[in-house]
Structure formats: C-alpha cells, structure tokens
Amino acid sequence: MHLYGTQAISHQGHLTIGGVDTIELAKQYGTPLFVYDVALIRERARGFRQTFEDLEVKAQVAYASKAFSCIAMYQLAIEEQLSIDVVSGGELYTALQAGVPAEKIHFHGNNKSIDELTMALDAKVGCLVVDNFYEIALIKQMANERQQEVAILLRVTPGVEAHTHDFITTGQADSKFGFDLHNGQADQAFKETYQAPYIRLLGLHCHIGSQIFDTVAFGLAGEKLVDKMQQWQTDYHFTSTVLNLGGGFGIRYTEEDQPLAPKVYVEDMIKVVKEKVKKACIPMPEIWIEPGRSLVGDAGTSLYTVGSHKTVPDVREYIAVDGGMSDNIRPALYEAKYEAVIANKANKARNQCYTIAGKLCESGDKLIEHAALQVAQAGDILAMFCTGAYGYAMASNYNRVARPAVVFVEKGQHQLVIKRESYEHIVKNDLPFTLKKGE
C-alpha cells in the first residue's frame, strides 16, 4: 500500500495523517470528510519555490486555487510565499477575505464578467491573464475610463499537446482558451495591447494541460513562447518581462502514474528557457508557474463510512459509502482512478476486490471500479487517497446532499477549516412559491 506525505499506520492498525488518527477524525467531524496533510502541501510549495531561488532565477510560484480554495488554504499559500491564481469573482473574493495581498493575485478566465473585472480593478490585482479580443476591448475601455494602469499577460495556445486526458488538454489549437500562436491571433492581440494607454503588457502565458509526467512538453512550449518574444522585440522593440508556463504537473493517483519531483520540473524548464533566451539574444524573463493539483492533490484524503454491501454473482461485489459523485465528480467526469484502504483495518491484507459505489441516484456514481481492500463491513471507515484537488472544489448539492467538512492536520493537531453543510444551508436561498393560482 502506497502512503502519501505523513500518512502512517498506527499500532492499532489505523491510518494516521499528520500524526492524527483518521478514525478519531471521522468520529469527531463525521463523514464524508476531506483531510488535508498540511506538511505535504508545505513540502511541495517549497520544492517549487526553493528550486528557483537556488538557481537564482526570478520567479513567481502561483497556487492555481481552482484545485481547492477556501480562506485557510489561501492563508497557507501566502504563508508559504506563493502568489495566487484565481479564475472567478468568488475565488477572488475569498482570496481577498483571506488577506491575500492583491498584488500577488493573478486573475484568469475565458469569460470574465464586467462585475468581475470591476472587482479586480478595484482591488488592484497584480495581473489579468487576458484570454480573448472581447476581454481586451473591455479592459482597455475600463482602464481608460478609470485612468488606471492594468498589468496583463496574453494567454496563448502554443500548439503543444501534452500526454493527458482529452478533456484536460488546453494547449492545442482547438481550445476555448487563449490566442492561437500560429494563426496570427497572438500577434493581433499584441498589437492591440502593447502600446495601449494604461495597459502594461508583461508577456505571455500558456497552459498545456494537466497530469503531465515529463518535461518535454513544457520545454517545447517554452521554446515557442520565447520565439514569439524574440519576434516582438525584433519587430517592435518590445521586451517581455514575464514568461508564464502554467501548471499541469502530475501526481500519483495509482501505481500507473509516475510523477516527477517539483525540483525536476523547475530545473528542466529553467534550462530550456535559459538556452533559448541566450540564442535569441533577449533578456531573461521572470518565470511564473501555476501548480495546483501538484500542491494539494495527494495531500487530500477523503474519509467515508461504509454502508450497504451487494453481491452480483459472477460479476462484482459492491460496497456503498455515504458520499460519492457529489463530493468527487472526477471518476464520472474523467474516468479518474483512485486507490483506497479501510482506515480502521489498514494493517490487514487487502485481498478483497470491491466496486465502491456512492449514494447518489445515478448508476454511474462509482468512486472506484476495482478496489483491492480489506474485508469491509458496515460502519468501517474507507479512506480514499489523493482527493485533494478538484474534489471539494467541484462538489455539489446534487440530490440535495450536503457538502462535506474539511479538516487540516499537521504535527498531531487538527483544525476544521470548512464546516459541514446542514440541510438549513441547502435551503437558505430557496423562496416560497407565491404566484396566485390562475382562475
């Protein structure tokens, strides 16, 4: 059984995280429950950031908070000297409520509303990552009306296809994101912004996909972006000061996944960019990256209580848990694979094969198709690993199921950082029917 971060097995045979017994966490906070290993998040953050510092390369490591956002998570990211990548007004508002300095916030998104842009400009965020011509027109108009300088990056699609799931590949030409680097769109976006009043163009941004396990694609993307930066300097005497190569660094979900250490991703990126910049005879830009999943993905563990057990002769055995696609949509959406353990029997042999079903009213609500587990009984606590990214962040109230609680653990301590929703929470925005019955 593969253990992550500070996970261990106690003398009682229980799974522990951060020195805390998961069975005690389940008793105190209930299930489903997300448990985050703070020490592992810190380790990953420092692995990215420290490598840039050791190699004396000016950089920003921005936490891609769509992976998991809440006030406590933003505060932890700032404590670890990270910038913050937000993609909505809600994430921006939460970051500001958490006390994140606005200048450390980068605002992404392919359809930012006028209200969201107004919020960003009012807060004076550090950078807007511009995605399309409609947004360029809006930002130029708003900046002129306010007479306010706005720093931007142009998001481009470099035509690099990472080895990943089709639904999470974003760097190819046919994408809803960014300006195409090869059909003239990126050049047109540059012309519309680089000398515009109140617009301070910093450079280029790309994001080529997610769950990437090598550095080749990042290197290819970096080379293409540096080529474009060289062209703009030659043709327009414009110097790009920032090169943002996005995120997408992979993590281990199952034994099929072979991720690299943060240091390796960063070292290879820097090597390629330095070599390309030197050949291009342009100044070395500041390098920005945006790890999200790789910071929190395998730091998160979901705890569930096992309920019903169903045997389909000669087909499979089901065990059902008290959560499902309402707190983890990824298996249904992406066919994502996970591993699990019976947390109160973690020291026992895993010689039973189960399909772990959720409780939602959907036949596709399966968390793991084939899970090698200890013999499971009703009341056992099932721990599903690596659910820290896009679990709680994509959770819903489908079937009017309440969203789980979230707990942070570190060095034997635990803290509730998101309360469990109640049924009162679920109906708080509902209004009674008051239309009069037609005569």
Description:
This protein has 439 residues and is of the alpha/beta class. It has two domains: 8-30 and 299-427, Lyase, Ornithine Decarboxylase, Chain A, domain 1 (Beta Barrel), CATH 2.40.37.10; 38-296, Alanine racemase (TIM Barrel, Alpha-Beta Barrel), CATH 3.20.20.10. 30% of the residues lie in helices and 24% in strands. It is built from twelve helices and 21 strands. The strands form three sheets. Strands 4, 14, 15, 16, 17, 18, 19, 20 and 21 form a nine-stranded mixed sheet that branches. An eight-stranded parallel beta barrel has the order 5-6-7-8-9-11-12-13, surrounded by six helices. The chain has a three-stranded antiparallel sheet with strand order 1-2-3. Strand 14 (300-312) and strand 15 form a beta hairpin. Helix 8 (216-236) runs parallel beside helix 9. The longest helix has 21 residues, at 216-236. The relative contact order is 0.15. Residues 164-171 have low confidence and may be disordered.
Question: Could you provide a short overview of the structure?
Answer:
This protein is of the alpha/beta class and 439 residues long.
Gap from first CA to last CA? 68 Å
Number of discrete helical segments: 12
Number of individual domains:
2
Query: Which overall shape is indicated by the principal axes computed on the Cα atoms?
Result: globular
The CATH class of the largest domain is identified as Alpha Beta
Work out the oligomeric state of the chains in this entry: single chain
Q: What is the arithmetic mean of pLDDT?
A: 95
**The CATH topology of the largest domain is what?**
TIM Barrel
- Number-wise, the strands total 21
